[in-house]
Amino acid sequence: MDDIRLLIDLFKGKLRQGPGGEAETVMAVELAGIDRGVPLAIADIGCGTGASTLALASLLNAHITAVDFLQDFLDVLESRAQSVGVADRIDTLCASMEDLPFVAEAFDVIWSEGAIYNMGFQKGVADWRNYLKPGGLLVVSELTWLTGTRPAEIQRYWDSIYPEIDLASAKIRMLEQSGYAPLGYFALPEQCWRENYYHPLQTGFGDFLERNGSSGGALAVVEEQQREIALYERYKSYYGYGVYIARRVG
Length: 250
Ligand code: SAM
Known about the structure:
alpha/beta; eight-stranded mixed beta sheet; 45% helix
């Protein structure tokens, strides 16, 4: 099995594919000042199996276009939406976040949790701005240094995986320079990484290896995840996910 099939197999049974939490999605809705009664068009980009999509569909009077480039994740999202009774408020779209088929100014809100790194924060916020109505809201979570300096081991690790990792102040400046007015920022609490993301992932490693005959590829996937988790446990005071909320200006 190639790497992408292995990653789909590891992640598709999980409620989320990255750090986050329902309470934190609610907090971002509140910080953004979104009126729960007003009808909204929302795009949730890099939605995975739909943790944030389903929370937004339940909370808001919204129609949500849930975008991911993996149909397997969208299939899970659709069946979860059916089972919680919000399927009529969600359309799924299998597309690349770098080549979205939207018309300009299509959405009131663009939401993206733990996904913009796939195209890079700077390019993502600039490109996606075109799909927001003037005055529309961007809510995006992004890997972020929490302190001005940090140990060399963790600096090297994230520089090699995601060189765009930076301080919140730098991300906020980027938003300001890309035609947004920042409205808020908070760092996801540890439980969004540990209880909500890493623990469910770890409990699935055994079954994942069994399903995949403990192949070299499957073992490598688990080792890589375990390395990331061990580094998080060691260095979690230095980095996290920042949630950025901004309004399109102009
Ligand atoms: N938002 C979900 C969550 O928080 O649980 C998923 C986060 S997961 C870390 C990143 C998601 O982005 C995955 O579902 C992945 O399939 C999707 N993705 C990665 N590259 C993409 C691309 N170029 N276009 C669209 N989706 C992409």
